[in-house]
Amino acid sequence: MPRLLSCCAPLVLLLSASPSRAATAMIEGHVIDQATGQPIAGARVSLARDIGDEPLLARTDDRGHFEFSGLALAIHYIYAERSGYMMPGAPPSSRPGPTSVDLRLPAAQGPASLARYSSGLKVDKSVNSDGAVRAQTTLELVRYGVITGKITSPYGTPLPGARMQLFMKGPILPGAEHYPVQQRLPDGQAVFAVACENSSSDDRGEFRCAFLTAGTYYLRAEGWPGNGQWASDYRATYYPGALDFESAKPLQLAVGQSIRADVQVKRLAGVRVSGRLSAPPSAPELDDTRTQYWVTLVPPHSRGDDPSPSATVRDREFVFENVLPGRYYLRASIFERAADSFDSGDWTPLYGILREVEVGSNDVAGLDLVLQPLPEIEGKVDFTSGCAAVPVTLQVMPVGSSYISQRPLKVDSAGGRFTLRGVPLGLVRLWASPHYPPAQPYWVQAVTLDGRDIRNQDFETPLPTGASVKITVGCPASRSAR
Amino acid sequence: MKTWLLGIALASALPSQALDGVVVDQLTGAPVSGVYVRTHRAPYCITDAGGRFHLDSPVSSTETWPVFFDRSGYILQQSIATLAPGESVAAARIELTPQAVVSGTVEDEDGFPLQSPVYLLGYRLVNGRRQLKIIAGSATNDLGEFRIAGLVAGRYYLRVAPGRGAFYGAGRYADEYYPAGLHEAEAKPIDVRAGQEVTGLRMRLKPNLGFRISGHIVLPPEYGSTATISVGLTNAGGNATLFSRGALVQPDGDRSFTWRNVAPGDYELRVGVGVSSVLSGTLYARLPVHVDQSDLSGLELRCHIAQPVDIPGKLIFAAGARPRAMSVILWGPGSPSARVGEDGTFVLKGIMPGSYTAGTLELTQTGRDRPFQLQSVRYAGREAPGRRIGLFAPPGGASLEITVADASAVLPVRALADPSDAATVSWIYLVNSEGNYLYSVATRGDQVRGLNLLPGEYRVFAARDSTYGQSADDPDFLAAHEKDMPLVHVQAGKNPLVELRVISR
To answer: What is the pTM assigned to this prediction?
Structure first.
């Protein structure tokens, strides 16, 4: 058995091992079940220099043992598979991929970030007198869990094409505050969506979410009667039949367990919310061929990815069907497109309104809304030292509701001062994109509003009088200058 | 068996009327419960245990509305409800066609489940050529199982396309046809009848089949960057991406790329052009390649630096007079457009490289822009097939010429249904001379429908229900019913009546 060296072994010894011919590496190890520690026989282990390269393959023997030899002294990628198992990983990510294994001489070892795809597999390495590296490792596989079930309509028939979503509950980690969450709970925790492969039900209403780690899951099915997604009275329903997350029953999934969770989608008729949109009386007459009316109704906590009623707007009259009782934000806007353009991203918001609407058990009619001119945001784009000015496009989008992709403002590099007009009301985010030359990527370093960081953060409009936004853009030159 | 008209007697002065009927299984005649019945807007209803439905009419006009009948396990069926004042209500009998299903498993050479997209294809006529097109698709699950449902009776071919997906599977397996083989000729047909479930299809893919494609990129001299360039290989033609693989090229290295295990077919090498706009100053390139029976090497992919260009053009109206306010639009990345001047000229400004489809719109007062049928789109002096223009080389002063068709041709057609049933609904299907299915309209009894189309040659046929769209460009289906599908030469203006026998699969 060769002597094992730790990473702190004297470099002198390593460097003195000067190979007479091209030195190679070998790696051997065992594939085991992470939960039981038992060896996994018949697993297939793949090893390649890069993702997509033709891999070397080995099958584990009865002791779960595998071996590769004649390898280059380099970082490799290793992957093990066996039916019912997956590589270890943590939700909410989807099925984990290969991991890197560093077979370079310890002296040549660089920072772990050299491995492009993962943080790496722990190996014990020894170096022979001829410079060959011998590595030993243990590859752990996890028996994955599966949640299957059948989605049925409120009438008991199979519901094909229902959208399945799995959720987990957890704390919002520092630094991840701006990650999308489904819902923020009163206890400071949040509900996160978990990847589910094959996430819609088939023609029999059957679904199968695989590659799940052990944990507590919540399942939601969202379906529609007939083909097409429209404002029906079918409601997104949590297992086993709840209309809100708080009433959902958790599904406890143990390691390697397969559980079944059938959901019958609930039907609950709502009311009609309707009204009319008009421009302010002082507004110049609108050209109907270039004007679009846009209206959304969203629950206050919405992050834009939960089911919301959709409206039809015709001749400035809007109607939402099947709206459930509750408190909503109604956001209405009038957009105008440039005279010569049909570009879907070429709409400029002119007027808008944000109004809280309380919906009860009766229809809400006659919501006649007179929209007002939308506010502006003043600001400046600065480039860090050494960076030539480039154009930057800016866009402000509301949080939590769909919105027409409006024409971004292109900030001329000269002076960098800008005025964003037609800014949506309420909770918004600002997106800035520098247009950079090939291979010299510019990036947004900071976005502040009167000194407060608002990069990837929500903020409220209209801004206080005199408030201004400062955008700082960096480039490769500024990085090297540091 | 027949499909019946959903007739509703309704005048605006009358109280709201209801639609009543029964839904049955086309094969067994048994009533079907749980069928979801709706018009284009709320409300809807569900058939009871006896297959009966009762739908309160949501509309009160004399227009004809589509009514949809949908239930898992059956093909979506559409009929029509005509709300004519004074018309009597007929009890509607709707037949639903049971869906066919194809299912099976895919595994690799070691018997491990292979996660992969799976497609069912069928021969269809595309611009006059018989070629395999994707009819339906699915993906295998963690057990390697797939299930493709919602099929009408017909002949299908199965293709597994593992090019994307598995970590080490990417590039290890070529696309294969069922039961095993790289070439279309090796594909075994899968014939399915209405309502049939073809199960247990098993494919075991072999690694390292197919051919090698290699070459290098050629950069413009002014390109000074050393950043990695991504080269894509995508299947060309067809109606969806079956195959897409990437390769990374180092500009300061040998600039070479290689893909292994590529199945025979038509592909395109791409740099820098996706579905969205290309940024000014970035690289782009496209090169069509055909893989047949051998490796392809030494390919030269010439890259250009994307710059916005202006494309001038002229709009010609075959019919003479043109509407007041017109625009020309290139549907595609950013969908650029330009207003047409009084003399019919226009300039599309700042066009970036990409694939576009030309269109024209009339700007109307209602805010709904009215599209026009185009007779011809010519770019750089050449006809653009399917109105599609690929702008992937510097244009060099090329211009666009768009001719708007005189759409005033009308072809009167009548389905020869059972004369004793004036309420029977049939569907008239229109196929152009190249075999491309255009559209279908519903008709009832011996009613004469006028089809609006461009002058030219067409095949028309009448079928018993709305589910024949999937078959209307199927050359086998067309050949089997050729005698009931006259080839009609349509002249401008009004044409003689065409009478059609109603066919079924």
So the answer is: 0.81
